[in-house]
Every structure is written in C-alpha cells, then in structure tokens.
Design goal:
Helix content is about 20%, strand content about 35%. It has helices at about 40-55, 75-80, 130-135, 195-205, and strands at about 1-10, 25-30, 65-70, 85-95, 100-105, 110-115, 115-125, 135-145, 155-160, 165-170.
C-alpha cells in the first residue's frame, strides 16, 4: 500500500521569511493518495521531470525531496513485518556534499525517534531541465519506518550532512486507514526482524532485494 507527497524547498523570487535560518518557500504538491503497485526508480524520475516543468520558472531549487512509503498489504503481512514498512526518500541536491543524509527522525511534542537506514544508492540524472532546476546529485534512501509513528501527531525531519537540518519532510498522522488489527509490542529491534519477509516485501513494492541480509 502506498502514499506519497512531493515537497520542494525553493529559493524565493520574492522576499518571504519562513524561519530565522533561511529565506525560503515550501510548496506542497499532493499525489493521488493511497496507491497500489510497485514504485521504481524510473517512476520517481518521471515525478521529478513533471515537477521541473511545473516549478522550473521559479529558478534554482536548493534541494528537492520526494517520498513513497509502503506497509503490509494486510494484517498478516503487517505482523510478518513486525509492524514496519519501508519509506523511500529520494533527494536531489545542488550541493553534492549535502549527501548522505545524516539523520531521518520523527519528532513529537515530547519525543524523538531516528529511523533505520536500510539501503541507499546514487541515481544518474539525465534530464536537462531537472538538472537545471534541482541539481545533479540524486540519492535514493530506503528506511525502515514503524507504522505506529504514522498514527501519531508529529513530523518526519531530515538532517543532511551539511547546510540544512530540521527539514520537515512529512507531517503525521496519516489519514489512510490500512485496516490493521491492533498489535501491542509488535515492533522489535532491527536485529530481530524477519529479513526474508522484508526482502520479499522490498521486491514487490520497489522491484529489488537487498543482498547480504
């Protein structure tokens, strides 16, 4: 099961102060809600192309994030995955040194939880408009995401290696209802996960398996 949101951090063509740290505009473009089916690197590339056509007139974009998350198709798979799903966070940056992402973490009013990185890989950008608008440095990151945090009020935030931290990527809770049965204590440490079930899930949702598990 899938849901995604496009988020841009853009250098302004008019003065607007969003925070004390920077002058910026954040534009939220919503997708089609919960979706079924595999999301591939090519499909994310197509989203970037459409976004470049839509927002290219605004000028240079410091960094752009797109994401897609997937959780178990039903309660049985949800249990096999110990209450986790997988979040794909794709980041294009003008400055190469901002990669890799240093931290991805969920923040509530009284707590903070860092997400476990599963895998990351660089993706070549061939579209000239995407390069001109967003930059040439794209890395796709795959994180383990607990379903429980998506049902709480809070923010998923990104710290890159340099230049930018505390970037709000996603606001929770989700409005999507996956129909899972309540499960207390389902989440376990990373070392105790069913890696075979997780790899099968990765293959179905994102089209590849992670070796050396």
């Amino acid at each position: 099961m899938k849901n995604y949101l496009i988020l841009l951090l853009i250098l302004p063509i008019f003065p607007l102060v969003i925070s004390a740290q920077e002058r910026s505009v954040q534009i939220y473009g919503f997708g089609q809600g919960v979706q079924e089916g595999m999301v591939t690197t090519h499909q994310i590339s197509q989203r970037y192309k459409e976004s470049a056509k839509l927002y290219g007139f605004l000028g240079i974009v410091d960094r752009m994030v797109e994401y897609d998350y997937a959780f178990g198709a039903n309660s049985a798979e949800h249990h096999r995955l110990n209450g986790y799903g997988v979040l794909l966070l794709s980041s294009i940056n003008q400055v190469r040194a901002e990669h890799p992402i240093k931290r991805l973490y969920f923040v509530t009013s009284n707590s903070e939880q860092e997400l476990q990185l599963l895998f990351a890989h660089e993706v070549e950008i061939r579209d000239e408009l995407v390069k001109e608008t967003f930059g040439e440095h794209r890395v796709d990151y795959y994180y383990l995401i607990p379903y429980s945090i998506t049902q709480q009020s809070g923010f998923l935030m990104v710290d890159w290696s340099v230049n930018r931290s505390g970037f709000v990527a996603i606001e929770f809770p989700l409005v999507a209802d996956f129909g899972y049965q309540p499960a207390i204590g389902l989440e376990v440490p990373f070392s105790q996960l069913n890696m075979s079930a997780l790899n099968d899930f990765m293959q179905r949702e994102y089209g590849f398996r992670i070796r050396n598990w």
